Amino acid sequence: MVAAKLMSEQKVSSIAIEHGGKKHIFSMEDLLEFVHAGGDLNTPLHETPIHMIDCLSEAERVLVAFELMERAGRRHLGVTDQAGNLVGIVTYSDILHSIDPSVLMERKTVGDIVARSAPVMFTADWILEDVAHHIKKQEDSIIVVESGRAVGIITAQDIFGLVTSGAAMDQSLAYYMTSPVITTPVNFSISNALLQLREFNIKRAIVVDEQDRVVGVLKQSELVGFAYGSWVNLIKSHTAELHELVEILEQRTRSLEKLTVTDVLTGLGNRRMLHLRMLEEIERMRRYGGDAFSLVILDIDRFKLINDKHGHLIGDEILKVIAGIMESLVRKTDTAVRWGGEEFAVLLANTKLVDATLFANRLREMVEHLSYQDDVSVSISAGVGEYSVNEDESSFFQRVDRALYRAKAQGRNLVEVDAGMES
C-alpha cells in the first residue's frame, strides 16, 4: 500500500527497486493484476509480482528502445548513466509520445486496422466492481455506451486511483466515468489519430463511424506498431533501390570532386590540385621532416606562333600530347597539372633538386624529339626548384617561376635551376 500511495502522490505509473545489485520494477499494471487476483494491499513488495527490468544507456536512440520493448513485450525500461547507475524509468507510453507521427503513415486510416481490436463496452447502469477485471494494462479502458454511442470512459488510471485511495467500486459506471468522450473518426489517418492522442494526452482512440457509433478502440501502441511496422516493411522492400540510389549519388559526388581538380582538355590536374598537393607536402615536411619535394614549372616555347600558324586545334593536340608524355614519366606519388594556357607544373614528392633537374631535362628532350608534323617544331623551357621548410607556398612558386623566365630569356628549350634556398 505504501508503494501504491507513493506512485499516486508522485503521479507515476511505476517504481524502481534495487535489490542485491539487480534492478526490479513494480508498476500500476502489476498492482491491478495483483488486486484482481485477490491480493492484499498490505503485502510486502518482495511478495508481490515485481520483475527484473531491462536497461538501456541514456545515450541510446529512441527507436532502439521502441524495438526492444516491441520484441520483448516490455512496458518499461530502465535508463542508466555511463557508470551503469539507474537514473530513470521510461515507459512504453513515453516512447510512443516521443515518436513524431510525421515519419509514420499518412495514407492508412484507423478504419484499416480498427477491426483488430474489439472494445470493452457496457451501458452506464453496470456496477464497476463487476467489470473492473477487464482493466489490466495501462492502455485498457471500459467504454460506456448508449445506443451504440460513447457517453463515457473509465481508464486504468481511474481504477488505479480508486484502488490506491481505498474507495469503493460498488457504484454504477455512470458514477465513475469521464464524460464527454474524445472520439476518432473512422477515416482519420494514423498520423492524425496519433496527433490527437498526443494533443489530449490519452492512450487510446475510440473509433466511431459516420453516425458516431463506436466501431472499435485502438490503443496507442497498436497505432504506432502498425504504422512503424508498415514503414519498416516499406524500407525493406526498397532496400535494393535505396542502395542503388546511394551508389549513384556517391559516384556523382566523386565525379564532381574530380572535376574540381581536373583540367578538361588534357585530363591532368589543375592549379587547384597543385595547390592542395603542395599544402600537403609542406605540412608533411613541417610535421615529420624527411626528404624535400621539388617543383618543375614548364612552358611551351612560342606557343602563340604555333596557334597562329597552324590553328588552335593543332595547338590543343600538342597540349594533349605533352600531357601524355608527362603522365608517362611521373610516379604515382607525383602530381602533374596544367597550370593554364601552355604552362604546366609537376610536383615531385620526396625528390631532391638534382633528381628534379634530371627529370625536367628528360621531359624537355622527349618534347624536343617529338614527331608531330613536318612543319611543326615544339620545345619547352622549364624552371626547377627544391622546397625549403622556411618558406611558404607562394614564395616557393615564385622563385621556381622566375627560373622558368630565365630559361626563356636565355634562348628557350632550356632547364634553369633555382638553387637560392637549396637545403
TrEMBL record:
SMART domains: CBS, GGDEF
Record-level Gene Ontology MF annotations: diguanylate cyclase activity
Matching SUPFAM superfamilies: CBS-domain pair, Nucleotide cyclase
Catalysed reactions listed for this entry: 2 GTP = 3',3'-c-di-GMP + 2 diphosphate
Calcium recorded as keyword: no
A Pfam short name: GGDEF
Designated name of the protein: diguanylate cyclase
Phylogenetic classification of the source organism: Bacteria, Pseudomonadati, Pseudomonadota, Betaproteobacteria, Nitrosomonadales
